[in-house]
Amino acid sequence: MGMAAEQLFKTDSPVRDDALRATVAIAHDYLTQRGGAERVVLSLAHAFPGAPIHTSMYDASGTFPEFADLPITTGRLDVVDPFRHHHRAALPFLARSFSKTRVGADVVICSSSGWAHGVKTDGRKVVYCHNPARWLYQADRYEPGRGGVAGVGLAVLQARLRRWDVGAARSADRYVVNSTIVRDRVREAYGIDAEIVPPPHAIDVLGAQTPIDGLEPGFLLCVSRLISYKNIDAVIDAMRGIPERRLVVVGAGPDASALQATASSNVLFVGTIDDNRLRWLYANCAGLVSASYEDFGLTPIEAAAFGKPSALLRWGGFLDSLAENVSGLYFEEPTPVSAGEAMRGLLQESWDERAIVEHAERYSEGRFVTKMREIAHDEAHADARAAVPAAALGARPHVAPAHPAERPLGPAPAGATRAAPAVSAMRGLATKSTIAATDLLSVAAAMIAAFFVWSHWRIDDPRNFRNAHEWLGVLSMPIWLFAISHAGLYRSRLITSRMEEVRRVGRATISAMLGVAALSSVTRFEAARLWLVLSAVFGYVALVTNRTIIRRRFQRQRRAGARLRGVVIVGTNSEALAIARSLRDDPALGYRVAGFTSDDLPPGYSFDGLGEVFGSISQTLSAVRRTNSTGALIATTAVNHDESMTLTSRLAEAGVHVELSSALRDIATRRMTIRPVGRYPIVYVEPQLRGSWRGIGKRSFDVGFATVGLLITAPVLLLAVLAIKFDGGGPVLFTQRRVGRGGVSFELRKLRTMVPDAEARLREVIERNEASWPLFKMKNDPRVTRVGQFLRRTSIDELPQLWNVLRGEMSIVGPRPAIASEADGWTPEMHARLKVRPGITGMWQVNGRSTATTEDYERLDLYYVNNWSFMSDVAIIARTIPAVLATRGAY
Q1: What is the pLDDT of residues 791-846, one digit of tens each?
Q2: Is residue 690 within 8 Å of residue 868, measured between CB atoms?
Q3: CA 631, CA 579: separation in Å to the nearest integer?
Q4: What are the beta bridge partners of residue 204?
Q5: CA distance 232 to 475
Q6: Count of CB atoms within 10 A of residue 678's CB?
Q7: Contact in structure between 308 and 356 (CB atoms under 8 Å)
Q8: CA–CA dist 419, 222 (Å, integer)
Q9: DSSP code string of 313-364
Q10: I want to staple 231 with a disulfide (CB 3.0 to 4.6 A). Which of 291, 403, 462, 799 is the partner?
């Protein structure tokens, strides 16, 4: 370790920029690929000015002028022309060359295509891997059919070189890769779980441009080395089917002559060109096309920087560098037919240039430099603290991650604050104590109210009665507190829904009153039975009221961004993103999505409005700590079983709250029970029973409610009928065929709220439809009468449907009655609505009415059908009254 680093960490301070520059070196084995690897080294040189670059295999003053001004030293294998121009001849010597190279620095960053990670270092070694050595691991794809002397030589050396390569890779303190496919290759070749940091593009979109003579804008562009695995022949052959366009091929290689000989007249080869001409080509092309097997593929990013889309082979690094349907599209096979279809689709599609440019900005050199500096800071810090005794530093010794794959992600973003665990715990305890105090006050008030109500029927001596029940009330407070706590009412993750909280309050109330009765028997303070019953009823009402007030207060605070629990979502598949959107759209649930971890997307990849990917799944604990989150939510369909088990155990041991999603959706939790079956916790779902006494009970309730409703509302209906008649005359009732239970149609009746010829005038306003489902809804519909506006706002126009209920065609509560044309477009799942009668009110009506979206309407109706119970009907009816009074979504 250098003296600079030792002095630096005596104060346990972050690594200073000047010290970091002096202690970072770069090892590089770039031989054959121009572009990605070269750009990484240049960006590292910018990130750490003055850092020496160590290499064994190229001459900075010759082939690569970009490196001419950089401090480069060569290894033990001298560069000679045969190796520089025929790089394959050098391959057998690379392992020995890099093994003999020692780099003296506190942190060494190796830009490796399979060899530079073998350098010896005095400090920490960070490997940025472009790909494990291709000729050892992917020779069949990149150099198919290789034989002769080279094939024999490889067969002889392969086993020995692989052993060296695996040992060299595992000597690294931190392994970083450029794409998802390279991460998978590294895992397979070396058994290392690497983190992904995409390489930068550095094309200057504002730089000078030099046009290509005789070339008009609107051509297709292919930028690639002309070698077999790039599949340029497929792209060139595809142009025969697009004679109206030109293809410009940029690049050189061993297959150049053969490709030019077979190309059609609308293909132009320009060879190797300077940056000015390349910029002009990017700026004036219609799009980029590539059928290459790429480890990453920077050319689509460079095209995107100019706002140009790409058509790419769905393979390898292109899976990371293209945002499908945003910056371009994929084709499935490197064939002329597949590539040609994609190229035509690229030309026909209308692309958002701004969105494409924003995608390219995610791969900027600035982002790459920032991330690599963070990694260097981390490794310099770890090495310095390990080198100096903890006692000398006056700080705790560095503790390595508990799992070898768990690598730190670097410091938290600028401006992020992290509360000390003790402070967070105290805040949580203070909140729970406040809620517990209000619960006890509510219970005490309920028991006092029960006493005064019961005292009207009291016949005993009032003083003795009062004393006995006062003592019982005081002594029962701990019982109430225990019952409420035991019911899980102080564990926020158990009461995310109001119905679940109400159910748990009921359970706590019953448990508490049984405890009070037992206390009365033990203490000989005889309690009146009616007082116990009244205390239970009043206590339940008081607790529900108190919890409603608290819930609404918390909801307001959460919608304002306060009292949210940070959570990292593990996975980025459709399920993970759906969960993230649900948590974002409903802050009242109490979650703040800090971001994601994923093995499918590179770090820094951002989902608009949801967050970014912090790293791989194995780095979840680091992501939780970095973002000051308290939990992780694992999307189980995005993580395999073994990895999920390992991750859950590791997070739980670290004190992180772990939640796992279920493939079951829209099933009420009251129907689910977790029970052990051998070693596995199994979710049992109660069957949904609608027949027998339940069906009779629901029908009896409907008939009774409808009868009483018609009797009570008869005067209102009469006044409404008279108002409709006086407001222009015409029929009083509006009837429409709707689909009922079992698909049987019926005539739904409503009070008429529109002009008599409303159906004929629908064409006048059809384009102003504001509803997202196949019904027509719009605010300020000119066809609605003055009386009709009032009837709609108050829902009085729905009252004749009580007659449909009496006739057995509808129910008081149920799915919304659908029109026939709407039912024709239902998915198979939606036909489950036909198992029950449609309702006057239902879950969709109390959750937005006309403002509900198609997705909301379908989801809520299916939830009702799948989870029906008498209590859910009562709850919906209770919520209908304030929804009607508030006139939400009624127009």
Answers
A1: 888 888 888 999 999 998 999 988 888 887 777 777 777 777 788 888 888 877 66
A2: yes
A3: 14
A4: none
A5: 85
A6: 6
A7: yes
A8: 52
A9: ESSTTHHHH--BTTTEEEESSSSHHHHHHHHHHHHHS---HHHHHHHHHTT-
A10: 291
